[in-house]
Write a structure and sequence with these properties.
Elements (H helix, E strand, L loop, with lengths): L2 E3 L8 H5 L5 E3 L4 E3 L9 H5 L5 E3 L1
Antiparallel strand pairs: 1-4, 2-3
């Protein structure tokens, strides 16, 4: 399953720069992961200071 960004997101953008397939974009309230592009590599989870990206 693709990763999803939880409500813990503080919109710092750290995850976006780490995504190798550019599946992460800035949403209205938090960053969002396009599940169709996500390759489940976990790079976003490793750099997030609040652990917002979670595997579904």
């Amino acid at each position: 399953m693709a990763y999803k960004i939880t409500d813990a997101c503080i919109s710092c953008g750290a995850c976006q720069g780490e995504c190798p397939v550019e599946a992460i974009s800035e949403g209205a309230d938090k960053y969002e992961i396009n599940p169709d592009l996500c390759v489940e590599c976990g790079a976003c989870e490793g750099v997030c200071p609040v652990g917002a990206p979670q595997a579904e």
